[in-house]
Design brief:
Oligomer: single chain
Distance between the termini: 35 Å
Order of helices and strands: EEHHHHHH
Number of domains: 2
Strand content: 5-15%
Largest sheet: 2 strands, antiparallel
Mean pLDDT: 78
Bound molecules: zinc ion
Strand order of the largest sheet: 1-2
Low-confidence stretches: 95-106
Radius of gyration: 18 Å
Number of strands: 2
Shape: globular
Length: 155
């Protein structure tokens, strides 16, 4: 079972892109794919289905909440909502992505950026907790540099 490269949850969206002859694979969970705009879980998600009463038994997430932007709460959600998610995911992987404005190469950049950001932010809050203000300032600078670095690349 592949894991989501952003958060480690079970990956359900698998993308293979070829860039400069290099094969690159992205594996994402439904939440992260939705955050990156690769799949769209929105109000249409509720409307489309006659059975609106789906509810995850483990965490209590309802179909309506999910359609209103709540994230999947547990692995059991995937089982509960799979029939609905399946459609969206299949569509996302079916080559219609460019119409939605999603460029695979760009997405992996966003993922890398997010990963680095998360790492730095963790270090930052540790430093602040330990009252290491000089170190914290250094980490803030690194975060700024990171922003610059990725903004430049996406030009
Ligand atoms: Zn994820
Ligand atoms: Zn759940």
């Amino acid at each position: 079972m592949e894991q989501c490269e952003r958060c480690g949850a079970q990956a359900v969206v698998h993308q293979t892109t070829i860039l400069n002859g290099l094969k690159q694979e992205n594996h994402l969970c439904a939440n992260c794919a939705s955050e990156l705009g690769i799949i769209k879980i929105g109000p249409a998600f509720i409307k489309k289905n006659h059975n609106r009463g789906l509810r995850c038994e483990q965490c209590g997430l309802t179909q309506r909440e999910l359609g209103n932007g709540k994230l999947l709460g547990c692995s059991s959600c995937y089982k509960t909502f799979w029939n609905l998610l399946k459609d969206i995911i299949q569509r996302a992987q079916g080559g219609s992505l460019q119409h939605d404005g999603w460029i695979p190469n760009n997405a992996s950049q966003i993922i890398n950026k997010k990963r680095e950001q998360d790492r730095l932010k963790r270090r930052l809050s540790e430093a602040v907790n330990k009252e290491l203000y000089e170190e914290a300032a250094g980490i803030r600078d690194e975060l700024k540099d990171l922003e610059k670095k990725y903004n430049k690349k996406s030009d």
